[in-house]
Amino acid sequence: MEEKKWKIGDSEELIRVQEISKTFHLSAKQQKLEHSTAKTKIAVNQVSFCVNRGEVFGLLGPNGAGKTTTLRMLATLIRPDSGDAVLSGSSVVTQPEEVRRKIGFLTSELKLEDFFTPDYLYDFFSELYGIPTDRRDTRKRMLFARFGIQEFAQVRVRDLSTGMKQKVSLVISLVQDPEIIIFDEPTNGLDILTAKVVTDFLLDLKEQGKTIIISTHIFSLVEKICDRVGIIINGRMVACEDLRTLCGDKSLEDRFFEIYEAVNGEDENHDK
Ligand SMILES: Nc1ncnc2c1ncn2[C@@H]1O[C@H](COP(=O)(O)OP(=O)(O)OP(=O)(O)O)[C@@H](O)[C@H]1O
After folding, report:
1. Most exposed among 5, 118, 175, 188, judged by the fewest C-beta atoms under 10 Å?
2. What Pfam families does the record tag this protein with (predicted)?
């Protein structure tokens, strides 16, 4: 089947997210945590955005805004209640297996099995993707060298540092050399040295022409690597623009707080 593609000027649209929404039922414990008596929470509310091939798109927002839920729907880990997203011609709703073959997904919450070694896990995930042994070994050597994993290749995950675990997770999320990479808070919890290795790697991926969506609350990371930014607050996409257009002559941080205050003011007036 011919893949559906949209053209905007010279750029090819690779990802189109159309009004995706997700509501969760809240347990009594969650209601307590949310300081709410509501039995449901709209985590993502009709979010739409597009990403062109080769672009880095940053999803920025405060805690609980809906970033992770959005990315988990794009990665087909959870199904949208309504709306759809098409990634390189495949729908997350009707063609989730196809989507999974095209993406690499990394979350800071990814738990690697403690008992296994990076070497074993890399081979295991490569096999799941049906990658031939010679290609697997060449790529593994390159990625392990890049992240300094070689000397820990035979060390069990339980004995690795947090930073090394995160680097191993990142490498494993990319075994199949995907054209689309989705990273949920890629530098979360990392020390500054490891965070820099990850940021530099993201810049390399960008240079290679990969299409990347990252979620973060780190303004400097967005300013460094993103072409476009979506700001998500209370489950709604409240701004979505080219980084330069969004910021004008202001810093991203200043613009973010301007938008945040405007949206919160609006929501408060609405609640009255
Ligand atoms: N499985 C779930 N069950 C119930 N509520 C959930 C679930 N997952 C997320 N939520 C709620 O949905 C809202 C959005 O959460 P989400 O994790 O998507 O936000 P986020 O922007 O990624 O936040 P953070 O930056 O803290 O990771 C939050 O109020 C969260 O508590």
Report:
1. 5
2. ABC_tran
pLDDT at 212: 96
- Name the residue of 29, 35, 41, 232 to mutate for ligand 1: max ligand atoms within 8 A of Cβ: 41
Q: Does the Cβ of 61 fall within 6 Å of ligand 1?
A: yes
ipTM for the predicted complex: 0.96
Residue 142, amino acid? M
Ordered alpha helix ranges (H), 12-159: 28-33, 67-74, 96-102, 118-128, 133-146
pLDDT in tens, 114-139: 999 999 999 999 999 999 999 999 99
- Pick 13-32+39-102+179-270's CATH classification: 3.40.50.720, 3.30.420.40, 3.40.50.2000, 3.40.50.300: 3.40.50.300
Residue 208 Cβ inside 6 Å of ligand 1? The answer reads: no
The preferred substitution site among 33, 63, 69, 232 for testing ligand 1, maximizing ligand atoms within 8 Å of CB, is 69
Enumerate long-range contacts of 264-268, CB under 8 Å, 24 or more apart.
264/233, 267/234
**Of all protein residues, whose CA lies closest to atom 10 belonging to ligand 1?**
43
Per-residue pLDDT tens over the stretch 150-181: 999 999 999 998 888 888 988 998 999 999 99
Query: The tokens of 157 are what?
Result: 């995950």
What pLDDT, on the 0 to 100 scale, is given for residue 266? 67
Cβ pair 201, 57 in contact under 8 A? no
Q: What is the pTM of this model?
A: 0.88
CATH 3.40.50.300 domain position(s) in the chain: 13-32+39-102+179-270
